[in-house]
Amino acid sequence: MTQDVALMCHDISHLYGHLLNSGLEAVLLFVRLAGVVGVVPLAAFCVYFLASHSVLSLNQSMVARLAASQQELEGQFRSHHGRVLTFSQEIAFLKGTVEEQNTSQRIFRFFSLLSSQTKTINKQPSQCV
């Protein structure tokens, strides 16, 4: 039991040291760069970095939603295709080919539209900020 407590204290003391080391390095780098380049260009760089990060975060969430929708439509299309393959004899016997073809085309049309939108968004220049 005492070894666990000692190990926990040891890990916590190293964690604090590692966090302090990274923060201290960032502050020292900022001070050194401010001395070499100047405060105004360094501040402008930081503002540019934060602005580009926010723009890219917004675009990433939009692309993630489109990718999720695309995966959902792919799943629907595959599911429908599997049902057509499974029940192909019943569809032919009951003359349901027109209805199944219309359903397949409707699902495929939505999938194609979403796929082209995703390709367009991926080619936007705002992704290269």
Describe the protein.
The protein is mostly helical. The chain has 2 domains: 1-36; 39-128. Helix content is 89%, strand content 0%. It has helices at 2-36, 39-86, 88-93, 97-122. Helix 2 (39-86) runs antiparallel to helix 4 (97-122). The protein is elongated and about 80 Å long. It starts with a helix and ends in a 7-residue tail after the last helix.
**In total, how many domains does the architecture comprise?**
2
The major β-sheet equals: none
Rounded mean pLDDT is 78
Low-pLDDT segments: none
Number of helices: 4
* Termini Cα gap: 53 Å
**What proportion of the residues is helical, as a percent range?**
over 70%
Helix-strand blueprint:
Layout: H1 2-36, H2 39-86, H3 88-93, H4 97-122
Helix pairs in contact: 1-2, 2-4
Fill in the keyword field for this structure.
single chain; 129 residues; mainly alpha; elongated
Brief characterization of the structure:
The protein is 89% helix and 0% strand. The protein has helices spanning 2-36, 39-86, 88-93, 97-122.
